[in-house]
C-alpha cells in the first residue's frame, strides 16, 4: 500500500497534545481561499519552482519530454500546462531551482520515520497526527497507517475538514484517538464561496462523532473579513454548545506566510493583501467563545 506524502514534520507541538510527528498527506476536495498548504491540494506529486535560484544551465529542458521547459534567448521558459510532473527536471537541477512537492511512500517507510520518535511520544503524551490536505482522501492508506500506529501503541490524531463520506469517517474513527476538526463558516452560501463546498456534511459528521463519543478538538481559522464577524462566531458558539461533547476549541490566527508557495506553484493568491488579526482581536474572539462553555485556546 502506497500513499502520496508531501512532508513528515518531527517534534510538532501544534497538532495535538504532546510532542508529535505530523504526516502531511496530499489531496483535498476543498479549496479554501486562505489555504496555507496549496501544495497539498492535488493528490499527486507536482513541480515547485524557485526562479531566483535558476542559473540557466538548461539541464531541465534537455530532460523534459513534454516541451513544458524550453530555452529561448538564454532564458528558461515554462509552460506548466504541458508538465506531467515526472520530476526528471528536479533531479537534474543542481541549483535546486525546482523541487517535487510530494512523493509516494509505502506504509512501512512512513512508520519507520514515525517510530524513530516513540520515546518522545511516551514522555510527552504525544503521538502521530495525520494532516494534509485531507487525509481521508487516501482512506485505504490512512487505514493502514492508523492500524500500524494502534498496533505499536502510538496515539493517533487526524486533522480533518470533515468533508468526507460518513461511512468512511465512521469506519476509520475506531482507530483514531483524537479528531482535530476544522470549522470555518456556518452560513452554507459563504462556505461554498470561500471554502469550495457545502458545510452540510461537515456539520452532520461532527454531530455523529460527538454522538459516538469521540475525543474532538474543534479548530477555527480566523480569517479577517471572512469569518471573524460576530454573526458567524455566535452561530459557531450556538452550534457547538447545542451538540455538547467538544473537549476544546482552538482559534488559529490567519497568516500569509504561504503567499510565496502560490508563486512557486504558478497559482494566484487572492488574499495577498490580507493582514493577520491582532492579538487583541484573537483574545476578544476567545472571550466570546468561552461564554458558550468551551475551553478556548489561541493557536494550535
Number of strands: 13
Range of strand content:
15-25%
Question: What is the CA–CA distance across the termini?
Answer: 31 Å
Instruction: State mean pLDDT (0 to 100 scale).
Output: 95
From the alpha carbons, calculate the radius of gyration and give it in angstroms. Answer: 21 Å
CATH topology descriptor of the largest domain:
TIM Barrel
Indicate the structural class.
alpha/beta
Characterise the protein shown here.
This protein is of the alpha/beta class. It is built from 11 helices and 13 strands. The protein has a 9-stranded mixed sheet. Strand 1 and strand 2 form a beta hairpin. The model has no long low-confidence stretch (mean pLDDT about 95).
Give keywords.
300 residues, alpha/beta, TIM Barrel, Alpha-Beta Plaits, 2 domains, 9-stranded mixed sheet, two-stranded antiparallel ribbon, 33% helix
Amino acid at each position: 500500500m502506497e500513499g502520496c506524502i508531501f512532508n513528515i514534520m518531527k517534534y510538532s507541538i501544534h497538532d495535538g497534545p504532546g510532542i508529535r510527528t505530523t504526516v502531511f498527506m496530499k489531496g483535498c476536495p476543498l479549496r479554501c481561499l486562505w489555504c496555507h498548504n496549496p501544495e497539498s491540494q492535488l493528490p499527486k506529486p507536482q513541480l515547485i519552482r524557485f526562479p531566483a535560484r535558476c542559473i540557466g544551465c538548461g539541464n531541465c529542458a534537455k530532460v523534459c519530454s513534454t516541451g513544458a521547459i524550453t530555452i529561448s534567448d538564454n532564458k528558461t521558459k515554462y509552460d506548466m500546462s504541458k508538465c506531467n510532473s515526472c520530476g526528471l527536471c528536479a533531479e537534474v537541477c543542481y541549483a535546486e531551482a525546482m523541487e517535487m512537492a510530494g512523493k509516494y511512500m509505502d506504509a512501512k517507510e512512513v512508520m519507520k520515520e514515525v517510530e524513530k520518535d516513540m520515546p518522545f511520544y511516551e514522555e510527552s503524551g504525544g503521538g502521530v497526527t495525520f494532516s494534509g490536505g485531507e487525509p481521508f482522501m487516501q482512506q485505504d492508506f490512512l487505514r493502514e497507517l492508523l492500524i500500524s500506529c494502534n498496533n505499536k501503541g502510538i496515539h493517533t490524531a487526524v486533522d480533518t475538514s470533515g468533508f468526507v463520506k460518513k461511512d468512511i469517517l465512521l469506519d476509520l474513527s475506531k482507530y483514531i484517538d483524537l479528531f482535530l476538526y476544522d470549522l470555518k463558516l456556518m452560513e452554507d452560501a459563504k462556505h461554498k464561496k470561500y471554502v469550495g463546498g457545502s458545510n452540510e456534511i461537515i456539520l452532520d459528521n461532527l454531530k455523529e462523532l460527538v454522538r459516538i463519543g469521540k475525543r474532538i478538538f474543534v479548530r477555527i481559522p480566523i480569517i479577517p473579513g471572512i469569518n471573524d464577524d460576530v454573526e458567524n462566531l455566535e452561530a459557531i458558539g450556538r452550534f457547538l454548545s447545542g451538540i455538547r461533547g467538544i473537549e476544546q476549541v482552538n482559534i488559529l490566527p490567519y497568516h500569509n506566510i504561504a503567499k510565496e508557495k502560490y508563486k512557486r506553484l504558478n497559482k494566484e493568491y487572492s488574499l495577498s493583501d490580507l493582514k493577520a488579526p491582532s492579538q487583541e482581536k484573537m483574545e476578544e474572539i476567545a472571550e466570546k467563545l468561552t461564554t458558550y462553555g468551551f475551553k478556548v485556546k489561541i493557536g494550535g
